[in-house]
Amino acid sequence: MGNFEFVFSLFGLLLGLALAEVLAGFGRAVETRGSVQVGWLTPLLGLFVALDLISFWGVAWTVRGTIPASYLSLFWGFVLTAIYYLVARLVFPRDPGKWPDFDRYYFAHKRLILSGVLLCNLLAIAGQWALGLPPFASPGDWFSVGLFFPPLALAIWVTKKRSNLALLVILLIYYLLLALLPHLISQ
Fold first, then answer.
1. Which of 32, 119, 143, 186 could in theory staple to 96 by disulfide, Cβ–Cβ 3.0 to 4.6 A?
2. Residue 117 above 90 pLDDT?
3. What is the pLDDT of residue 184?
4. Do 120 and 87 touch, CB atoms closer than 8 A?
5. 70-73: long-range contacts at Cβ-Cβ below 8 A with a sequence spacing of 24 or more?
């Protein structure tokens, strides 16, 4: 077992559990859709958090050759994935009966959730720098940062429903572009 496999065995487990939390929330939303008003905000937030979690697998793969099998690596990764697990746990209400309107739940929890996503992404960038990897090595990296961080930061603070919907859609389009552009450019 190499360093990456050793270190990522812990992170992969926690990231997988975080994804399971988001998926369980989607399941609860589907189960209770007749008795609660699900709306769009919480499901879009859940999709965004799931896609951001998945992106961490890609980041981990990119840095796999430089991750040392050390306590510091394990601790850094634990902090990052623990925050992500807590964020994922909060996306959907655990007891939908206490939140008959998921949009109200969204506005009550979105700052904590989106701030946690922002923190995880900043910690990942700091981790790349600590490993001696420039996280913004290409103009495309800077373009990606410009498309991701401003709408995320705005979504933390805006209070209007339509603005939140628009920012979540922009963040989801970002991940769609992140997935499709490399394939479109290489053709």
1. 32
2. yes
3. 64
4. yes
5. 73/7
The set of long-range contacts for 3-7, using a CB threshold of 8 Å and a minimum separation of 24, is: 3/67, 3/68, 3/69, 4/60, 4/64, 4/65, 4/67, 6/69, 7/67, 7/68, 7/69, 7/73, 7/74, 7/77
> Hey, is 97 helix, strand or coil?
helix
What residues pair up with 37 in beta bridges, in sequence order?
101
Contact 11, 42 (CB under 8 A): no
For residue range 146-181, what is the model confidence (pLDDT) as tens digits?
889 999 999 999 999 999 999 999 999 999 988 887
Exposure string over 92-110, b if 16+ CB within 10 A, otherwise e? bbeebeebeebbebbeebb
pLDDT of residue 161: 98
> Domain residues of the chain, as ranges?
3-186
pTM: 0.90
**Using CA atoms, how far apart are residues 150 and 167, in angstroms rounded to an integer?**
9
Distance between start and end Cα atoms, the chain? 36
- The stretches of 32-136 forming alpha helices (DSSP H) are 41-62, 71-90, 102-130
Helices 71-90 + 102-130 axis angle, to 10: 170
